[in-house]
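Throughout our pipeline, every protein is held as a single compact record rather than as scattered files. Such a record has a labelled line for the sequence and another for the backbone structure tokens. This encoding replaces a full spatial description with a residue-level series of whole-number codes. For reference, a complete record is included directly beneath this paragraph.
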Amino acid sequence: MTVKTTLSFTERHHRFLMEQVENGVFATASAGVAAAIEEMMRAEEERRLRLSAYAELIRERAATPLDEYVDEEDVFGPAFAAIEAARK
């Protein structure tokens, strides 16, 4: 179903949209606006999926028992020592 609406654009946005139509990128200004909205919808879905994945990773890490944590000195100590030796 198509819905007719009125939109307002800045001169810059309108000029760009009309250039895209003139260059054949979009058949009409409406098609250009629809493509932009579809891209926004795709980006929002991707953002939602990423946030969900990050939340799951945080939950998994929060459930890690303390005895499985890695000591900071064991992990970074050799690198810090190498950096310090290189400075001398």
